[in-house]
TrEMBL record:
It comes from Denitromonas halophila. Keywords: DNA-binding, Transcription, Transcription regulation. This is LysR family transcriptional regulator. InterPro entries: LTTR (IPR050176), LysR_HTH_N (IPR000847), LysR_subst-bd (IPR005119), WH-like_DNA-bd_sf (IPR036388), WH_DNA-bd_sf (IPR036390). It holds the Pfam family HTH_1. One of its GO terms (molecular function) is DNA binding. Belongs to the LysR transcriptional regulatory family. Residues 5-62 form the HTH lysR-type domain.
Amino acid sequence: MARDIDISLIRTFLAVAESGGMTSAAHTLNLTQGAISQKIKRLEELFDTPLFERKNKTIRLTPEGERLLVRAYRLISLNDETWQLMTQPAFTGEIRLGVPLDIIRPLLPPILRRFSREHPRIQLTLVGDMTGNLLNALKNGDVDLTLTTESRAGGGDALLLSDQLVWMGAQNGEACQKTPLPVSLGSDSCAFRGPTLDALNKAQVDWVAICAQGNLDSILASIEADMAVAPYLQSLVPPNLSAIPPDAGLPALPTYHINLHLPDAGGSVIAKELAKYIRQGFAAR
């Protein structure tokens, strides 16, 4: 006998799968953690199978959960498309989002996936660049809104995340012990370049630039090869690299902030809608 599936249970399932935890999913859906747990329990009872494996405060999909995942996206997409068609004018058009290169992959995919799923008629274009260039692009109208990494926290709801800038190196690497210290800095417009050089010079550390004009891939490659160290946001250090501990003797680096900027005029309706999704995504971290 066929049974109906409660779409809210599927939406909760996807939120947990994408965020990797009940607490993060609760922030995303604006529900309590208890409500999230109950919805997952109801869905597992409906299918008579566990969908998540819980171990050591981590949660991951079971094989049955992975089977459901692709169909769950299709269910939600069809549900949302039908709802928009029948109840409200759909958002249409193009939106250009500026994003610093080092935060695109670690932070944006779940946010962009949810936005694109729920607004399929909007063409979302990513513009990856350095913070200074992105702020100029926003001022000139070349992007509709932009994320930035800045030394000053944005006011009001502009601040998305504050994080410690740390030294990053290869796992069990030796570059941090070399003299002069090899530092991979990237281009002159890198937001971390100024405070990093200030810290090195104030501490009177002898250093040499490695990969002085490279892109993010070349910087990461030089770090992984143990050719150099580099400044990076602590929470975004890739799993194949390591934050260098303070006892290595490198000078301390400042706290940095990920901010969200819209045009001074406030931005378009679509830009404000995307900004809402971005704020919700960061709040769920």
